[in-house]
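Lecture notes, unit on binding sites. The following record was shown on slide 14. It pairs a sequence with NDP.
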Amino acid sequence: MATATMIDGKNFAARLRTGIAAQVAQLKTSHDLTPGLAVVLVGEDPASQIYVRNKGLQAQEAGMNSFQHRLPATTTQAELLARIADLNADPAVHGILVQLPLPTQIDSHAIIEAIAVAKDVDGFHPVNAGLLATGGDAMVPCTPLGCLMLLKAYAGDLIGQRAVVLGRSNIVGKPMAALLLREHCTVTIAHSRTRDLAEECRRADILVAAVGQAQMVKGDWLKPGATVIDVGMNRIPTPDGKGRLAGDVDFASALAVAGAMTPVPGGVGPMTIACLLLNTLTAASRQHGIPVSEILPTAD
Ligand code: NDP
């Protein structure tokens, strides 16, 4: 029985971070410029605290300045907007990320729209979404950007490949589809109202699953040899009560059919933070009119 090539996102992300660190070091020598990433956390959500800490640590490891802003859960929308205005005006800050979700008294759309377009390293601002859709120099959301890098390295020539994106969220599904279209794939977006999901998936040379439904995509939904990118991060119960992470793809049955696939964990997840660093480097370079050279590790 054939077994899919495992796409080692952890290793790939480590090599991407090495490439980013090298360019950061070069920016410092050539332009006396240190990219700066500001991460804003409102409240004490434990998972968000871990994400924010990791983002800060990895930014520092890449040689960047990391600015952490921790605000109480009672922060008002006006207070958060004021903080963002300060960061927009701060020349040492090239990228701003506000950790989501935000407490209910704050409208996350208003916050995202307040971030300067050029500093929007999450790529969630409507102007960046529009630039991506129309082929401009957008800041691209980190998770789909990471998926695309893996596909460029592992899926061969993307031109003309039939890609199916499962999920249509603004942070994963839609930008993923826009990126694949930009790479000249023939793109289908499927979602909860799609009539026959399995049939749509079976046509895919490239399948990106981002639905948040544990192990939904079965091996017999896949075209033999397809490249499968599993974005899903779902916690499922285990007999010892600890639970474990599972993707949106049923790993065991997919392994025998796919040509290459990402595991969960260790696939897309590590690429997301690495692409945040890449976006911060890109933002800093663009803000100073410095050309950005592509960093694209190859398959290992
Ligand atoms: P959302 O909940 O915002 O969107 C889920 C999408 O999947 C929606 O478009 C929804 O359709 C569709 N969907 C849900 N259930 C089904 C179903 N049964 N059949 C078909 N389509 C379905 O999720 P996100 O896009 O934010 O995230 C998706 C997954 O990716 C989650 O598991 C999340 O944890 C993970 N994730 C992982 C990241 C990483 O770094 N690895 C980063 C971001 C997300 P509809 O629009 O019709 O409701």
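Take-home: The longest helix spans residues 9-31.
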